[in-house]
Amino acid sequence: MSEPIRVGVLGARGRMGAQVCKAVDAAGDLELVAMVDAGDWLFSVADAGAQVLVDFTHPDVVMDNVRFAVDQGMHAVVGTTGFTPDRLDTVRTWLADAPQLGVLIAPNFGIGAVLSMRFAQMAARFYESAEVIELHHPGKVDAPSGTAVHTAQLIAAARAEAGLAPPPDATSQSLDGARGADVDGVRVHAVRLAGMVAHQEILLGTEGETLSIRHDSLNRSSFMPGVLLAVRAIRSRPGLTVGLDPLLDL
Ligand SMILES: NC(=O)C1=CN([C@@H]2O[C@H](COP(=O)(O)OP(=O)(O)OC[C@H]3O[C@@H](n4cnc5c(N)ncnc54)[C@H](O)[C@@H]3O)[C@@H](O)[C@H]2O)C=CC1
Ligand SMILES: O=C(O)C1=N[C@H](C(=O)O)C[C@H](O)C1
């Protein structure tokens, strides 16, 4: 039997990090060698010989963590949000100097969430209107969610490729925020509600019909198959991978 993959987790005491630690610990082919949270000694991950670093921390610190992983010769699987095109380009630049390393950054590790984004991307060109509503637990620090931003970007790109005009909208006066955030011309609405975990509905509409694509993560175990898939795959995927799609053959 081959050696287990040694995994270190950053954000280990957080909602996602704690779940990832449990999932890694329970997997026979993975070994949890380091659990680090804010204020802990970051280099303990390297000292423990981690081969793959998993990051579920905070958008303000994640770039430093990815830089650390690359500098220390570790692959990285990153679920933390806040990745703009500029940030992704910066990671590509770092990886150019470490061509043997892989970094996978995914806005959502839920298989259903990944599928729903793909379905929205496929459907977008057929509809005049498209808006995204994301609903999350009130402990979430960023709005809109990384998933919603990514979904809106995919929809916007599909609409542009199809040559669609901007969605019809006669609003000429409104309260601030009433029409949501504008992500590349697609409106995104963020709800924060006790009892929610992570949910998203993509609404598409045209004359005489609407299509709703909804995904619900009912608990954080929904993200674990995707995280473990990425941990197992990343050592043979040098360079930057954005999203789980290629690992699902999508
Ligand atoms: N890609 C995906 O499928 C998912 C992504 N997320 C994202 O993951 C991130 C974390 O989410 P949650 O676990 O809900 O947040 P959380 O606030 O429960 O956990 C974050 C943890 O990171 C720790 N932390 C902060 N700075 C750190 C540092 N420099 N080094 C080590 N640890 C540090 C915090 O102390 C905290 O324990 C968010 O950006 C969230 O949007 C969340 C769920 C799924
Ligand atoms: O903070 C969360 O909880 C989640 N964050 C990710 C995001 O911002 O898209 C993924 C999922 O929605 C849960």
From TrEMBL:
Binding site for NAD(+): 11-16, 79-81, 106-109
Source organism superkingdom: Bacteria
Residues binding (S)-2,3,4,5-tetrahydrodipicolinate, per UniProt: 137, 146-147
Keyword NADP: yes
Main location (coarse class): cytoplasm
Annotated ranges, domain Dihydrodipicolinate reductase N-terminal: 5-109
Record localization: Cytoplasm
Record-linked InterPro entries: DapB_C, DapB_N, DapB_N_CS, DHDPR_bac, NAD(P)-bd_dom_sf
One GO MF term: 4-hydroxy-tetrahydrodipicolinate reductase
Subunit structure: Homotetramer.
PANTHER family xrefs: 4-HYDROXY-TETRAHYDRODIPICOLINATE REDUCTASE 1, CHLOROPLASTIC-RELATED, DIHYDRODIPICOLINATE REDUCTASE
Family per record: Belongs to the DapB family.
Official protein name in the record: 4-hydroxy-tetrahydrodipicolinate reductase
Gene source species: Jatrophihabitans cynanchi
Gene: dapB
